[in-house]
Amino acid sequence: MKSNDEATPDEPEEIDWNEVARKALGSAVLAAFVGGAMQVLGDVIRAELKAAPRRPTRDSGPAAQPARPEPVFDHRDEYDLAGELLGVDPEAGQAEIRAALRARLAESRAHPDQGGDPEEAKILIAAQNLLLEYARFRGKP
Question: Would the pTM of this model clear 0.85, i.e. be above it?
């Protein structure tokens, strides 16, 4: 019998069956490990899906769905506060709101160009913008 170094191209190389068995066994162990992990993961997902509340289906109709409370979103407090800051009624017109801001900036010397506090001026301008938006919404000129 010839050694592997002397093998000719026509002759097949010898197979190391021990190496083949080791690789096959390693692949089988790895496959079993991965398969077991996937089984455990699937069991966990199934358990979570069973524990999760179910959504109503289209066939269940509106009566089966729990009633949701309507969100309450009222800006009345914001409008009242903005009116207090400017010294004007929140239901005032746009011209009156603009005049109130000018008067407030002049009397408190809050305008940054006159050495006032820029943060106070920003708050007053934000209050004016809120009331102007509300006046436009109501259709008041």
Answer: no
